[in-house]
Design a protein that fits this description.
Layout lengths: L2 H10 L3 H22 L3 H18 L9 H20 L15 H12 L3 H12 L4 H8 L3 H18 L7
Helix pairs in contact: 1-2, 2-3, 2-4, 3-4, 4-7, 6-8, 7-8
């Protein structure tokens, strides 16, 4: 049986240990996702907490169809978009030390990502930064797998052109 389904059932039955386990399992991933969308780490933490608050508010009606992480990503994306609209911030990411070497290169990548159209940006963040598989991205964004593949390829092309590198084959 699916580990998430067992946790969900335990949480619905009021098991505080299951809630703690669930949060420990997904909090780092959702926080990383929020940090990609919001340049301020304090606000990113707030949006992560809001994501879990919204999830637990809807838990009694939650229907488990796959991975709980996908549902959390959808909620987190909505929280971050709402935050950015309220604060009129350009959603940029804090890239991890492993993704890009040096502060100058991180700034270049941030600027290149910011120039991507919204639908390509969201896909690029999930794929290149969060390292989510394309099949999962399709579920998270509610789009087809071929569309995800197109967006990843197109984002790669635009980023390569923006960063002045030859497109990888």
């Amino acid at each position: 049986m699916d580990e998430d389904l067992i946790l969900i059932r335990r949480m619905k039955n009021g098991d505080d240990g299951a809630i703690e386990e669930f949060v420990r399992k997904y909090y780092p991933r959702i926080l990383g996702y929020c940090r990609v969308h919001i340049d301020d780490s304090g606000y990113a933490e707030d949006m992560t907490q809001e994501t879990f608050a919204r999830f637990f508010r809807t838990l009694p009606n939650y229907q488990h169809y796959g991975k709980a992480a996908n549902y959390l990503y959808v909620i987190a994306g909505n929280c971050c978009r709402d935050h950015c609209r309220r604060h009129r911030e350009l959603p940029l990411e804090e890239l991890s030390e492993q993704s890009v070497e040096g502060p100058e290169q991180r700034i270049e990548v941030r600027m290149a990502l910011a120039k991507l159209p919204g639908e390509l940006w969201e896909t690029a963040v999930l794929y290149f930064i969060q390292e989510v598989k394309q099949k999962e991205i399709a579920r998270i964004l509610g789009i087809s797998l071929p569309l995800v593949k197109y967006r990843v390829r197109r984002a790669r092309e635009l980023l390569a052109a923006e960063l002045g590198k030859e497109e990888p084959e």
